[in-house]
Specification:
The complex is a heterodimer of chains A (about 270) and B (about 425).
Chain A: H1 3-8, E1 14-19, E2 24-25, E3 28-29, E4 35-37, E5 41-45, E6 51-54, E7 60-65, E8 69-73, E9 82-87, H2 96-107, E10 115-117, E11 129-134, E12 137-139, E13 150-158, E14 167-174, E15 183-185, E16 192-201, E17 207-209, E18 216-221, H3 225-245, H4 250-266
Parallel strand pairs in A: 11-18
Antiparallel strand pairs in A: 1-4, 1-6, 2-3, 5-8, 6-7, 7-9, 11-12, 12-15, 13-14, 13-16, 16-17, 16-18
Chain B: E1 4-5, E2 8-9, H1 10-28, H2 33-46, E3 59-64, H3 66-73, H4 81-95, E4 99-103, H5 112-120, E5 128-132, E6 135-141, H6 145-150, E7 156-161, E8 179-181, E9 184-186, E10 195-197, E11 199-203, E12 212-216, H7 218-227, E13 240-242, E14 251-254, H8 255-258, E15 259-260, E16 268-269, H9 275-280, E17 285-290, E18 298-301, E19 304-307, H10 308-321, H11 330-351, H12 360-363, H13 367-388, H14 397-414, H15 420-424
Parallel strand pairs in B: 3-14, 3-17, 4-5, 4-17, 5-8, 7-11
Antiparallel strand pairs in B: 1-2, 6-7, 10-13, 11-12, 15-16, 18-19
Helix pairs in contact in B: 1-11, 1-14, 7-10, 11-13, 11-14, 13-14
Classes of the chains: A alpha+beta (about 270), B alpha/beta (about 425).
């Protein structure tokens, strides 16, 4: 009984600014991490960068202003003089019957308490990055900033994850003093967005991964696209740094980074 | 038809049992997590302790913050073993603490040889250092509702520890020369960390039942080492305790205050500075851990977001003091709910005849209104009993509150409380 009115009620949409890109609201510059309730209208100019906003289940919206002044209602799918890219969040597939059964069974489900190991993780994981594919070789260095020198195996899964997902594994002897770009051959890798995980190679050539590792997102591109994408990624990095310094959660920061990479991938 | 004992009918008892069962089912399914969490946060962060804390000045934290991570370790992980070894060895040999707890994982294959050379030099000056392991594989064993309710069985987690200082802990536990433990903590349903398990089940093959061994967790090992030479009030019978977040955090020293990282690829004790640490760390517990932003080691607690090393410090402090709340086993919670429920029924039935003792508002009242007042009063008393005797068992407060509130409702609603004649009788 209580659930029915709640179910029928349309919730006010909360919008969160990911990357402000120099856009404004009522002449006030937007800040990364700010939240607003719809409806609001953002203003941009050709000089402004890309505005990235999170619109809840509707996805992440990227707006690029292509005329002198642009006005775009938040979460709008089109607007005059504005190029709009919508990055949809993955939806859970399944029939409505499964949904109801799932909802019902979850009411009685008893999940074990998740455990946390409280210690500084000793193994540096790859970071999100835009990587250059040069012929058969990929420059892995930008994704291995926090990874110490050593022999690793890298595993890539293409994004969006499709079934069966395309997985490529390769070995890398990472030594930034002799090769800061970390160039390694990877002929099977196609340009695009991938999940990157770092593992250790076993004696039989198998690759073992740490279960605690969060895969990095890497966008692999060949020239001439790479230079443009890499510059755009560096611009985002500056704004992401502000987001980081403003004390926002790492989860939010990571979501914005991934949304930015997905947007750049779509714009190739 | 009803048999009455002290004003409590058979129907009342059946209603009470049903209510208690429903409340326990809600607890099992984590429906009361938010209420439980609120109460626990309030108590754990503000509880007044009746005895002085023995751990008050027992701990120091040496933290690798963002600045030290960048300047001493080039923002690279795993942290360079040679430097890590120098830090621990310098602290043990120069500051002479009672024990050093190293809250940094040393399981990276690439540094195996370097880690082994640290291990070879450990514990040479009578100061024990205790290192952490991570959980490589974990298996959860569910307990069903009735086993949980009547025998107090809890879900169990069995973990396979990762390598410590280059070597995998032996197949049988505890292993060789390196002292190590798992700083493993269960999250509550609201994902906050409040509980400190004093033991953990280890196995080299968690999937299969054989070869499991109970071992002390890392914080327990550190506290135990300290308690060899210092007075402690550790409650050895408790398997899991709630951490006392009302205590102040131990004094923290940034790594750069104590060590000089200005020479590339080297780290050494500062010639000047950090005297407050070097002069006073003797006979204390010194924890070395990372608080840099990218350590991936921050968690939510009743005191807000804290780093792993700070939470470990709270766990060690709570273990030394023995003043923490103890998690109550479920059969006791059931008995407690029943006792409070019976008390409520008893008081409600007796006060029917003593309304002249109560405020005028109640003289004209009906039974449900009286039930609410009596229930709230009982809950209030129960809360303060727990508050005043914080070293006793923690009540399943949310269950008790709901049990107390719902049971009189159930019994009075069954008696058609809206009947004006019943209300005036």
């Amino acid at each position: 009984m209580l659930a029915l009115p709640l179910y029928g009620q349309k919730a006010a949409r909360t919008i969160r600014v990911g990357l402000p890109g120099g856009w404004t609201l009522n002449s006030q510059p937007l800040k990364a991490g700010d939240t607003y309730s719809a409806p609001v209208e953002f203003q941009g100019t050709t000089a402004a960068g890309d505005l990235l906003i999170e619109c809840g289940s509707a996805g992440t919206f990227a707006y690029t202003c292509s005329q002198e002044r642009c006005l775009v209602p938040a979460c709008a799918t089109s607007s005059d003089g504005v190029t709009v890219h919508v990055i949809q969040h993955p939806k859970i597939a399944g029939s409505s019957t499964h949904v109801y059964l799932g909802m019902l069974s979850s009411l009685f489900q008893h999940d074990p308490a998740p455990m946390s190991v409280l210690g500084v993780r000793g193994v540096g994981d790859p970071n999100d990055a835009v990587l250059l594919k040069d012929g058969d070789a990929v420059h892995w260095g930008p994704a291995l900033k926090g990874v110490s020198e050593g022999k690793y195996c890298l595993q890539l899964r293409s994004l969006p994850q499709i079934s069966p997902s395309t997985t490529v594994t390769l070995n890398l002897d990472w030594d930034r003093s002799s090769d800061p770009q970390g160039i390694a051959r990877a002929p099977k890798i196609v340009p695009g967005l991938h999940l990157l995980e770092k593992g250790t190679s076993g004696l039989e050539g198998d690759c073992t991964f740490n279960s605690d590792q969060t895969p990095a997102w890497v966008l692999i591109a060949a020239e001439p696209n790479f230079s443009r994408l890499e510059k755009a990624w560096r611009d985002y990095a500056l704004e992401l740094k502000e987001l980081n310094e403003s004390g926002n959660s790492t989860a939010l920061e990571s979501t914005i980074r991934h949304a930015a990479l997905a947007y750049l991938s779509d714009s190739r | 038809m009803r048999k009455k004992w002290s004003g409590i009918s058979k129907g009342d008892v059946i209603s009470l049992l049903a209510v208690v069962l429903v409340i326990q089912a809600l607890e099992y399914g984590a429906w009361l997590a938010a209420i439980d969490g609120r109460f626990l946060d309030s108590m754990l962060a503000h509880a007044r302790l009746n005895q002085p804390r023995l751990s008050e000045d027992a701990l120091y934290i040496v933290k690798i913050d963002d600045d030290a991570y960048e300047k001493c370790f080039d923002s690279k992980s795993p942290l360079e073993p040679a430097k890590l070894g120098t830090i621990v060895q310098t602290i043990t040999s120069q500051a002479h603490p009672a024990v050093v707890g190293v809250d940094i994982l040393t399981d990276a294959n690439v540094f195996k040889a370097a880690y082994r050379s640290i291990a070879a030099k450990l514990n040479t000056n009578n100061v024990k250092s205790i290192w952490i392991s991570a959980a490589e594989g974990a298996t959860f064993e569910h307990t069903n509702f009735f086993a949980w309710l009547f025998t107090g069985e809890e879900d169990e987690v069995i973990v396979r520890p990762t390598a410590v200082l280059g070597d995998r802990p032996a197949e049988s536990f505890p292993s060789g020369d390196v002292s190590w433990g798992l700083p493993i903590y269960p999250r509550d349903e609201d994902l906050k960390l409040r509980r400190f398990p004093r033991q953990v089940l280890l196995s080299s093959d968690p999937e299969h039942p054989g070869n499991r061994q109970e071992a002390p967790t890392w914080a327990r090992l550190v506290a135990r080492e300290y308690c060899r030479t210092h007075p402690c009030r550790t409650d050895d019978s408790a398997t899991q305790i709630y951490m006392n977040f009302a205590a102040n955090l131990p004094e923290e020293f940034a790594l750069q205050e104590l060590f000089d990282c200005s020479i590339p690829n080297a780290i050494s004790k500062r010639a000047k500075g950090g005297e407050a640490f070097w002069r006073t760390a003797a006979n204390r517990i010194v924890l070395v851990g990372g608080t840099f932003r990218n350590s991936g080691d921050f968690y939510y607690t009743p005191r807000g977001r804290l780093s792993g090393v700070e939470i470990n410090a709270y766990a060690i402090g709570s273990d030394i003091d023995g003043l923490g709340f103890r998690a109550i086993r479920q059969p006791w919670a059931v008995l407690l709910d029943l006792a409070v429920g019976f008390a409520t029924l008893f008081v409600v039935s007796k006060t029917r005849h003593w309304r002249w003792l109560l405020v005028p508002w109640l003289i004209e009242s009906n039974e449900p209104r009286l039930s609410i007042v009596v229930s709230l009063a009982l809950w209030f008393i129960a809360f303060w009993v727990v508050w005043l005797f914080v070293n006793e068992y923690l009540l399943g407060i949310a269950g008790v509150v709901l049990g107390v509130l719902l049971d009189p409702f159930a019994s009075t609603l069954r008696k058609n409380p809206l009947d004006p004649e019943e209300a005036h009788n």
